[in-house]
Amino acid sequence: MKNVLSFNGKNALVTGGSKGIGRAIATALASRGANVCISYSRSDDAAGEAVKSMSGYGVKAFSYKIDQNNVGEIPGLFRFAEENIGDIHILVNNAGICPFKNFFDIDRELLERVWRVNFESHFILTQLVSKRMIERKIEGRILFMSSISSRVGGEFQTHYTPTKSAINGLVHSLSIVLGRNRILVNSLEPGTILTDINREDLSNSAKREYMERRVAIGRIGTPEDMVWPALFLVSDENTYVTGTELLADGGMLVNLQ
Length: 257
Ligand code: RM4
Description:
GO terms for molecular function: oxidoreductase activity, acting on the CH-OH group of donors, NAD or NADP as acceptor; quinone binding. By secondary structure, the chain is of the alpha/beta class. The chain has a single domain (11-248), classed as Rossmann fold (3-Layer(aba) Sandwich), CATH 3.40.50.720. The protein has helices at residues 20-31, 44-55, 74-85, 108-135, 161-179, 205-214, 227-234; strands at 11-14, 35-40, 61-65, 90-93, 141-145, 184-190, 245-248. Strand 5, helix 5 and strand 6 form a beta-alpha-beta unit. Helix 1 (20-31) runs parallel beside helix 2, helix 3 packs parallel to helix 4 and helix 4 (108-135) runs parallel beside helix 5. The model has no long low-confidence stretch (mean pLDDT 97). Beta-L-rhamnopyranose (RM4) binds next to loops.
């Protein structure tokens, strides 16, 4: 039994990989030998810094700018990743948005944007990547970033939480489709992790204190807290876990009283 996880010889595509949880997972894969392509939607500087950092581990690292709201651009991301890192063994569908909003103020454009970025774009990318895995007989690993919010609600997340529940439903069905090809499909459910997605929301001290009190271990999570749960699920050492969700929330969900 190996005592460290190695990703030598693996090629990984991580969406939303220039910051936050995606950056932490992408970096962890690169530091353990994987070639990595990340997608990002905003900061060229952040993406460039991430690529430079990952390249420092002696692996191939690339970034591709895409707004995953524009789902027609997803095939371009897939082609770029294949052209630059080769056949994809690991797909981490991480990109996501959550603009906190009052239910009655959410218009169709925002509702559809959140749906496209958080669900539809991942569906399309996963179709492309998994079809190639089957063609190449790659017993790949696919990880979707779901959330504790797939299981519980948020007053200002009525457009968001359903996308995370939908991700879990997709994982259940996709694990059947891809299981016969030994491609394992799971979702990770982070609790409240301090990243750009909620920095403004958690800048409210009362909200931050409430969320911290909810966490059994007493602190908001960090992107690094998500690394080992993710690495296990996408590793070759995972031989039998598929079609399920791994909750990584510091005990927040069960901490009612
Ligand atoms: C997560 C969870 C967190 C929230 C972020 C935006 O899924 O709901 O509590 O801060 O989304």
